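Notes from the 1:1 (GR / supervisor)

We went over the backlog. Supervisor wanted to see one worked example end to end before approving the batch request, so GR pasted a single chain during the call. The sequence is below; no edits were made to it. Supervisor asked that the structure be written out right there so they could see what the output format looks like.
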Amino acid sequence: MESTRQAKIARLLQKELSEIFRQQTAATRGTIVSVSAVRVSPDLSVAKAYLSIFPSDKAAEIIANINASTQTIRYELAQRVRYQLRKTPELAFYIDDSLDYIENIDNLLKEN
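Structure output shown during the call:
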């Protein structure tokens, strides 16, 4: 059960992370990274961000680069939310493959 505070912080982090990734991927043509969901732990110390990456064949490479620069992303996030949050949570990034899963199910249903 997610508290109201967790939900508000998750929405704030999702919005700010989306803007960070939008600015970073503006330089790389043909790649889109969007934050599909953020889950915050009950003590607000850890945030898990689920990323949708297009095209999905580059997803493993991009998520590896993002995980390598987690501290830089956290610092930039802290600068953006410094007036809303006292401490910025630790970040963990995961690939959200729900769109690929849905597409796979659609293809299987069309075959039958």
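Supervisor's comment: The longest strand covers residues 32-40.
Batch request approved.
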